[in-house]
Amino acid sequence: MKLSPLQQVKKQFGGREGLVDAILPLLESKDDETRSRLMGSPNQKLLRIHASALELKERFGSRKNLTEKIIGLKYPKGNPDDGYVKRIEEATHKRLLDMYTQNGGR
Length: 106
Fold this sequence. Notes:
This protein is an all-alpha fold.
């Protein structure tokens, strides 16, 4: 039988605080506002955020590396559009991974 999101959080992280503490370094964020927003999120959403942030960290090392690769795939000759760069910088981890795949990354 599949565990509920609450059971998964308790089993893997010991509780919501443990999960949020595991997510914050992956998001490269240390501010209290991010922490409080995450603490108010549902367990299932926190698990998805953790999974995508962990995948990004393992595959690309950092968010900056992934954004540079996406820009390189989209604009191979350089000279990226400023609006596109701004949109990438504001995108979530999951969206960045999707953009990388859509632009021909593996």
